[in-house]
Amino acid sequence: MNARESITVEVVAIEPLTPLIKRFTLALPDGAPLPPFTGGAHVLVSMQDGATWHHNAYSLLSSPHDTRRYQIAVRREEASRGGSAFMHDKVQVGSRLAIGSPANLFELAPEARRHVFIAGGIGITPFLAQLAEHTPEARELELHYAFRSPEHGAFVNELKQGPHAANVHCYADSEGQRLDLLKLFKSLPPDAHVYVCGPQGLNDAVYANAALLGWPKAQLHSEQFAATDTAGKAFTVVLAKSGLELTVGEDETILKAIERAGVTVESLCREGVCGTCEVAILEGEADHRDQYLDDDEKAAQKTVLLCVSRSRTPRLVIDL
Ligand code: FES
Question: pTM of the prediction?
């Protein structure tokens, strides 16, 4: 999918769910159905804030069986790169937003008999669509949802009243309720697939506990939006084909610096996950921050993911 194929949607409802999270309901202005999607899909939302554009990826949390509307939840990020603050402060019912078609980088493994979801905070969103997509009779799904305190458990009530309630387990950190990952892994049948979405610490803990038990990596799936640290020292990026030299600011990504100069680059997740924005390095060394290249590819310094990675050298010349 090309992220530039955009759909204009209208915000038809906004609900505050917690002090930090709002749910936005989006629909086509003429009420026609939106493109179909599967649980785990996200859309890229493009927001124009004066002369600045923000592009953030948000998981669709509404049911894939109802495409008259999409729903996303936005957590106001303390270290917001602008997009979440814009959604919270400037978007109102009736606002129009440009979104890309849904793309799914977090699909259920078709071969698995049992799917175990582990969510931290706002990382719950892709799992809500996956739960809505399947009945408990059709798929064996189990959710473990950890959050800071009861007031931050945005979807607890809906989950407890939903059809999967018997397989939903909630953990409020402030109440001393902890998810024991080792115990969980030990309790799973060997062919279960485990999916994690949440902060880096949770992601790392899931992978570390799985490794302790020799759990196959092919049965682990993760999605992590909005948690990659993309800041660092400023440097120069050179676009070899045009000779354009751009300064990438301390809080800016290479992708944003290029877009600021009016050059369009294809991008999809903008979080270092999908590989769409990968380009060849002609000179210099990248400071890789993505989750797409493997360790050997990162060491080879042949390509860089423009949406999250930076440069180790003062100049980075890329094949663009
Ligand atoms: S846009 Fe997905 S990795 Fe950069």
Answer: 0.81
**What would the pLDDT profile of 207-221 be if each residue is shown by its tens digit?**
999 999 999 999 999
Question: Are the C-beta atoms of 25 and 61 separated by less than 8 Å?
Answer: no
- Ligand 1 centroid – CA 178 distance (Å): 33
Give residue 7 CA to ligand 1 midpoint distance, Å.
Answer: 20
- Give yes or no for a contact between 314 and 236, defined as CB atoms under 8 angstroms apart: yes
Is the CB of 267 inside a 6 Å radius of any atom of ligand 1?
Answer: yes
The sign of the CA dihedral 40, 46, 49, 53 is positive
288 lines ligand 1 (CB under 6 A): no
* CATH number of the domain enclosing 74: 2.40.30.10
Q: List the domain range (segments joined by +) for residue 21.
A: 6-104
* pLDDT over 70 (residue 1): no
Domain-terminating residue out of 180, 199, 224: 224
Number of domains composing the chain:
3
Does position 2 have pLDDT exceeding 50, yes or no?
no
Quick check: is 230 in a domain? no
At which of 197, 224, 251 does a domain end?
224
pLDDT tens digits for range 255-303: 999 998 989 888 877 888 788 899 999 999 999 998 788 889 999 999 9
